[in-house]
Amino acid sequence: SLVCFVTGAQILCTVLLIKPGAWSRSLARILRKLDVEKFSVVGMKHINLEPDVALGLLSSEVKQDPAVLEAHCTYLTSGTALVLCLQRPNAVKKLIDLLGPEDPKLAQALDPFLWRAQYGVSTVQNGFYGSKSYQIAVRDMKLFFPEGLCCAECQTLEEEEV
């Protein structure tokens, strides 16, 4: 809308899931990176993903190959993940840009400072899941934070019933 254009980028939320194993050894560094990038953490919880929830986070490409699908689901349900709801202007795009490609080797080739280049070891154990669009972020917020978030009420979240 014109109001958003005039006032600048809209403050949005997105979801970052730090996969099992990645957050336990790197949480302080990851939180520092989020702070440097001006993200506010407005929700955080440990979670052991159920297989159906893990399946819902996977892309359609991953779901096409049964062996790859099994590897992803097994890994995502193998331990405790940390789910963060993050807020900042253009949160969804900014987070996806910071994470980089799903394949850490490709991320490393593009930019060694991409988060998956730094924390990922394979396409399965790539360190992070990030909501790929605002619509998916809203779905993820409702899924992982049904009790609500600790951010100041904003019209966007009210409209999305988060």
Automatic annotation (TrEMBL):
Signal sequence residues: 1-24
A single GO molecular function term of this UniProt record: kinase activity
Domain Nucleoside diphosphate kinase-like: 11-151
InterPro entries: NDK-like_dom, NDK-like_dom_sf, TXND_domain-containing
Pfam families per record: NDK (PF00334)
Source superkingdom: Eukaryota
Keywords from the named record: Kinase, Signal, Transferase
PANTHER family: NME/NM23 FAMILY MEMBER 8, NME_NM23 FAMILY MEMBER 8
Family (UniProt): Belongs to the NDK family.
Name of the featured protein: NDK5 kinase
Classification of source organism: Eukaryota, Metazoa, Chordata, Craniata, Vertebrata
